[in-house]
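I would like you to sit down with the record closing this message with an eye to the fold:
=====
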Amino acid sequence: MEWSIKKIQLELKYTWKISRNESSFKENFIVEACEGKFIGIGEVAPNIRYNETPENVLENFYKFLNSESLAVKSLDDLTNLLGKIKLPNALRFGIESAYIHMLCKKENKSIFELLETPNPSIVASCYTLPIMDIAEIETFFNSHQLGRFGHIKIKVSEEGAIEHLNALNKICSVPIMIDANEAWKDVDLLINFLQRLKHLHIAFIEQPLPASMKEEYLYLKKHCPFPLMADESVLDQPDFDLLQQQFNGINMKLMKAGGYLNGLRILNEARKRKMETMVGCMVETTLGISSAWNLCANTNYADLDGCLIVANEPYNLLKEENGYFTKTT
């Protein structure tokens, strides 16, 4: 086995702003796994929320190289090796997905045959509005032709959330997903806010409180008028006994799950517990987003729009039309 990594800079079509940070570009990585003439690549999208930085991605990749990486001869070998060394989840996914993509070529199998999972063929995705001035919402919605999507997600912070949602509601005829990225710190203030949204067509509320507020989520679920979707509370080893009491569904992101295999395990465990499932993404190229697309069969929702805000998309592995994603190859 030969392994390599390179950094790519993704320029964004507009400023991506959520409740805790904002950016106009993103630094991701591409991992390459090579065995003879067979080559596979995987994407790494580090997230500062989980203490993942470009610097520690590179540091940990060389840690991986200096382990038994060259001796990997099977997916089981790689899984065992990754279980021994602690890597950032986004890097772990990049490594595992590169190997699996290589293995598909080597064994002349589709990703669905290798993973023994259904091919979704076509996937409906939502589109996410970042936080912006209220006066910009209608222009943004119309200029990006967002009426073609079956769901619209909007990022909110505690300040001004009501006004932003009312402004969106005036121009949006489809269900709205509210994504707060842990913006609220007071559960009673949050419940009061949610009670004021009953006139809106809300699909769900995603991670409104910090993941650390475990008891508050138990209280919130009893008083929330809308379904609750977990995001930051779902990492590589989620506590489903607790999650089931706190939330109605989960947002599984491969960059947080740390691999295809673990992502599938998380989705299957959620389904077994009758929880709703969503496959989400970070800001990624269509390499990473197509990996998420691969697991979207039988999910309730998909949030695959992370590639649509990238101005310099290098791979073009997915095509979006009328709010639906299909593979280009």
Notes: The chain has twelve helices and 14 strands. The first helix runs from residue 54 to 65. The mean pLDDT is 97. The longest strand covers residues 2-17.
